[in-house]
Amino acid sequence: MRRRDFLTTAAAGAGAPALLGACASSAGGDSGPLEYLSLAWQKESIEVNKALVAEWNKRNPSVKVRYVQGSWESVHDQLLTSFEGGEAPDIIHDEANDLTDFAHGGYLADLRTLLPEGLKGQISKANWDTATIAGGIYGVPFLHDPRVLIANRKMLEKSGVRIPAAGRPWSWGEFEDVAKELTVPGRRYGVAWSMKEPVNQSVNLAMSTGGAVFHRERGKDVVRLGEADSHVIELIHRQVNEDRTAARGSLGMAGSDTLPGFFAGRYAVLPLNFSFRQQVMQQAPDGFEWVTLPMPAGRAADGGGQLQGVSPQTLSVSQDTSRKKAAMAFIAFMTRPGHMARLAEGDWLVPTGREALRDPALNTDEHGWSTGLRIASDLRASPVLGVRGYPEWKDKVATPALQEYYAGGIGLRALREKLVGDGNRILARYQR
């Protein structure tokens, strides 16, 4: 689960008062505040969330909101229990990856008739697609955590390799060559892939080469592992087992586990989520120079390029709440351009809103912010979103199979048999 998206300010400010007033009157017969389940976990993010809730309550004394602290690690089970017990919070902070079963189960409100036009217009269709399930919209996508490369600046400059930029990334072939240039046998690896949770990144990066792994055929979701789907998967396997440019020891690590080796000079480049920049900034030793780079790209002619799949953080409304309009008004308030930018800055993430992406506080080269904002237009709904049975496939089949493949325990044919053969049997059960 990943912890860790903006309409013009004038339009949002002009449209909000009438909407809030309407919601306040519609909620007049209900007692008690609306409950907002927040999964903010970093100090700065919690502070911003609580400050915005306080501002809302000051402006809307008849429709107050109560901040409820949740946890990414337990949110799915917590929500399932509260939905089934009829005690779900009114406003729910979650991740798009988690919405599929809740939407199909009838636990979340379809927001299509509730969304204010201003909010709907400031977020692109590609972003709305991440929260669209069976034609309905079940969350407002507001924060992205895309994959980037975090690299040792001095090692890159000393090697003489081309330094990529958001508009001109390395190709995957260049990336393989760069990893070879940066590798010093017995002393340093060019790259460390953290693969404790390999599935989402393996599927999402397949989009850069025109793949998806999950495909739609005859109205049903199926798993396929053709050449485009497996290109990056095979590259990682090759770096670990043939080129020896990627550290085998990092395969069982989470992203944060690779940072000590990065700071010690054992790894030159780390593929990590954008939000990890905060940990790098906080933990890097004095004098350590690092840089944020875009992920490698496939050929645009093959339907890929710089595309990558994402599962954004979302704000949803419980189907059971009697105050859906008031809940939606609060979400619209939280996702005003300035507020969304503050939330993104506090969580070190990329906002989804067009106006928030232009916020001066985020448009800086410091700590790699500009890299994340410049790749925002290349982010697409992860192929796993909306797929019934995906969590079971991920846990029972894909995670162990990919870990075994990356470590060299099985070959591509065996991997394909597991992911496709076993995977489609699982998906078929959910689509009868």
Automatic annotation (TrEMBL):
Q: Which InterPro entries match?
A: Bact_solute-bd_prot1 (IPR050490), SBP (IPR006059), TAT_signal (IPR006311)
Pfam families the UniProt entry points to = SBP_bac_1
Q: What is this protein called?
A: Sugar ABC transporter substrate-binding protein
The organism's superkingdom is given as: Bacteria
